[in-house]
Amino acid sequence: MKKFLFFFLVLILVAGFAAAQDLGLTAGLEFGIGNVNKANDDDMYPYLMPMVIYENAFLDGALDLYAELDYTFGFTKAINEDGDEVLPQSLYFDFMLGYNLSLGSASTLSFILENEFDELIFSPRYKESNNLTGIFTPAVKFNQEFGFGDLYAKIGVPITYVQYYKDADAVIGLDFTAGWNSAFGLGVETIFYTQIAPSDGAGYLGLEAIVSYETGSLYFELDTCVPGKISEEGLTITPEVDYTFGNFTFYAFFEFAGMGIDGGKVSITPALGVKYSF
Asked: Which domain holds residue 91?
């Protein structure tokens, strides 16, 4: 609980500093209930997640910087390795640096370096596992502007250098992204995920498709994740709606996970959130 309060205090202080300096920072808070329908007789797990996001461009838009820090505080107790009941807590951190090279009035080539700490777990912790997962992703993106919108393609090489399971080998993937942002608010993006080392025989990990539409203050999105083995992992569908009012953005989504698993049931996670941009 002290860690949560400390993080929330840091969030408020940083947000206040950003408001004074106009640094392009966003502070937010999300509340959700994982597995609210108690699928497969598992418990539901409500959570609260404060977040701080910094996003800005420098050198006349040539240099992009993005950083995100999320702290997830669970309300359903879990048993740690000592047999004690504790409240789950974890931290997520994402840092991205991009350089945009103009190839003319309508073409841009971007070089991107991104590093994620995908859940730094504070509790519960177990001896047979690490307490974080680290993913480093270099990528190259090409964007072409047309009268009907922008077309773009990206190739990324995610390297999972620290895994949740101890002593596990590093994993190298190859992601292919193609997308279109129309001139009238429609966006379409597809991502094809593969694994190239170590080879598990199949190599294919999944496909993700994101369809979005923005009109005025409203933004709609439908995210569909299709794994290579649907009968074992199940596909996930997440519809989301955002509403922007001044500097505030209110959002809500429902995650439907585990669809298509043999003998399994769909887990539903609703969430509400608000962000304030300085």
From this structure: 2-277
